[in-house]
Amino acid sequence: MFPSRSDFLYGLSERHLQRLAEIASRAPMTGGELLMHEGRVGEVIYMIERGAVELKTRVDEDFDLPVSVLRDPGQCFGTSALVAPHQYSVSAYCLNEGSLIVFPRVALQGLIEADAETRPDRHDQRSQATLGTPHRDTARVDRPLQIHHGIAPIGPASRGVQDGLPGSAGRAEGGSGSRGEGPKGPGPPRFPPEDAL
Fold it and tell me: Is the pTM of this model over 0.85?
């Protein structure tokens, strides 16, 4: 049912894909159609099956700035609806005729929560900041249902990112957090040494 390549579905097992297929539906789209309106509560998440969609953001009352054009099967939009306050962060307009796969937000969140509650490794956090990155590995593994929507979790799995920031090493390890001092030692210098200028 789904396009063969999608960052949204990357790495999901056949069991997870089957569960997603049970809640998904197909919808036609026509050129010029407004699919989602920036700032409104998002009830669905869209995946392109065929066609093109332009994403725009409101600059002022009379002008929407084009942000991106999505053309590839498997590209998703409307994923901001998965994060509170569940509003669309951009508007989406169909550029031509095509078809979409539609996931109801409430049903999708229900699947994510149900899977997390039944998995013993539900506290294992993985970085989800891979949206837009081409994946060479297409192996499907049985892991907790995680939808990639461009938000990286904060926790033990993401410490490598935090540790590189001034003042974050101490907080990440439970220290004082002042200028990176903590169990790991001093953080990177804040400014270049004077002799480097």
Answer: no
The closest of 24, 42, 159, 41 to 103, measured between CA atoms, is: 24
CA 190 to each of CA 24, 118, 178: distance values in angstroms, whole numbers, following the listed order: 50, 45, 12
Contacts 24+ apart (CB under 8 A), 111-115: 111/19, 111/20, 111/23, 111/145, 112/145, 112/146, 112/147, 115/16, 115/144, 115/145
Work out the number of other CB atoms within 10 angstroms of the CB of residue 145. 18
My answer on whether omega of the bond before 85 falls inside 30° of 0, hence cis, is yes
Domains along the chain with CATH numbers: 7-118 (2.60.120.10)
Q: Is the four-CA dihedral 55, 34, 107, 21 of positive or negative sign? A: negative
CB–CB of 105/86 below 8 Å? yes
- Tell me the CB-side half-sphere exposure of residue 182, using CA atoms within 13 A: 19
> Which pLDDT tens digit goes with each residue over 64-93?
999 999 999 999 999 999 999 999 999 999
Token reading at 42: 């998002």
Q: List Cα–Cα distances, 58 to 43, 64, 71, 84, 102, in angstroms.
A: 20, 4, 22, 20, 24
